[in-house]
Amino acid sequence: KNIVILISGGGSNMAAIVKAAKQQDWERRYGARVAAVVSNKADAQGLVFAKDHGIATEVLNHKQFDSREAFDAQLAQVVDRYTPTLVVLAGFMRILTPGFVQHFEGRMVNIHPSLLPAFTGLHTHQRAIDAGCKFAGCSVHGVTAELDVGPILDQAAVPVLPDDTAQTLAARVLTQEHVIYPRAVAAFLQKH
Ligand code: GRF
Fold first, then answer.
1. Interface pTM (ipTM) of the complex?
2. Which of 28, 30, 83, 132 is 20 to 30 A from 62 via CA?
């Protein structure tokens, strides 16, 4: 069972999943492995981590395509080279077309830095602080055509502290992302 992870930047969630796969021996337990890391940014730092861990990497520059559909069609072809059981969006900062989402329907997940259904979209931490939330957090969900909406697979909550800034809250949430994402992927692999 191949897992393909899509990133756009640091890839800390991807790294957490790669580490969990090794430490928890997903190969033996689920017959699963991280087969490739794909990025829309050639300078995504996560690509270095993937290469260092002997994982195939692919870069698809969305600027080289004249439409979102054309990019997504090529992206689907690249991802399909690895016959994925599961496609993991991890800090992948692209809005995907319905066609791409349908193609991977039921086997594509995402992590979003809020307690969905609250705060879909961007700047989630600042919005939680501005709203006076006492808790914030992160959610792993199945990807559907509607942005940041889909069946919630796992979540973690963290306190919002009185002196929090978006940055301090983001750091606290990110730590929990690295807990729930590997946990959610393992649960998916157990079921499929
Ligand atoms: C994280 O805040 C995650 O919630 C969002 O992208 C950010 C960076 O993730 N999806 P990563 O370090 O690139 O995995």
1. 0.94
2. 83
Closest-lying ligand 1 atom to the alpha carbon of residue 89: 10
Q: Which of 13, 173, 176 to mutate to test the pocket of ligand 1 (most atoms within 8 A of CB)?
A: 13
Active-site residue flag, 192: no
Q: What are 44's two structure tokens?
A: 């995504």
Nearest CA, atom 13, ligand 1: 11
pLDDT tens for the chain, 192 residues long, are: 999 999 999 999 999 999 999 999 999 999 999 999 999 999 999 999 999 999 999 999 999 999 999 999 999 999 999 999 999 999 999 999 999 999 999 999 999 999 999 999 999 999 999 999 999 999 999 999 888 889 999 999 999 999 999 999 999 999 999 999 999 999 999 999
Output Rg (C-alpha) for the chain, integer angstroms: 16
pTM: 0.97
Q: Relative to the CA of 10, which ligand 1 atom is closest? A: 13
